[in-house]
Amino acid sequence: MPILFFSLTVHEFSHAWTANRLGDPTAKHMGRLTLNPLVHFDLMGLLMMVASGFRFGWAKPVPINPANFRDWRRGMFLVSIAGPVSNLMLAAATAVVFHAVAYTHLGAADATVLYRFLYSMIFINCALAFFNLIPLPPLDGSKVLISILPPHMEVLAESLERYGPMILLGVIAVGFMLPISPIWIVIGPFVELAVSVFTGIS
């Protein structure tokens, strides 16, 4: 739970910070340009996390106004990708500590607890990054996709916005009834590769 709270807070803060840097102060004016986790958490998203055993949930989306960007496509792309990138950066920073622990003089029990915590930090942040890159609303990947679609494909973008959330919820619901989630089938190889690169454990 502490890892999720911290990682999701950094994720949402990164959206707000990037938007503000690119000329959209909407999130800043609404008090979202902060690392205070209480500001970013959604009550229903938190309850869903607990009910699902921390397999699914969400934080409060950061408000963005693309009209404030000089180039809305570039702005939307950078703001959307900032969240997943921040999670990968957290994983990379944690990996430095993870490898440094090997050179300390901690006792076996203390080292094991610390290793497990750091490994979980790396794994969860990699999973958050790649999950959010799925191109279905309201995930960041959908906004990344929309920002790079050519104008003549606006119909696809509208369809994504309309039907994407229902498709995503349906896939997640199916995942709870199957031995392995369809979402994990898609992102699992990427998550496992990233974790192995960061930890050196295959």
Brief summary:
By secondary structure, the chain is mainly alpha-helical.
Mean pLDDT: 89
Number of domains: 1
Structural class computed from helices and strand pairing = mainly alpha
Task: Point out poorly predicted stretches.
Answer: none
Question: Helix segment count?
Answer: 9
> In what range is the share of β-strand residues?
under 5%
Helix-strand topology string:
HHHHHHHHH
Major sheet size, sense and barrel closure: none
Number of strands: 0
- Spatial shape: globular
Helix content: over 70%
Radius of gyration (CA) equals: 18 Å
How far apart lie the N and C ends?
25 Å
What does it look like?
This protein is mostly helical. It has one domain. It is 70% helix and 0% strand. It contains 9 helices and no strands. It has helices spanning 2-21, 26-29, 37-40, 43-51, 72-100, 108-132, 140-148, 154-177, 182-199. α1 (2-21) runs antiparallel to α5. It is globular, with a radius of gyration of 18 Å. It starts with a helix and ends with a helix.
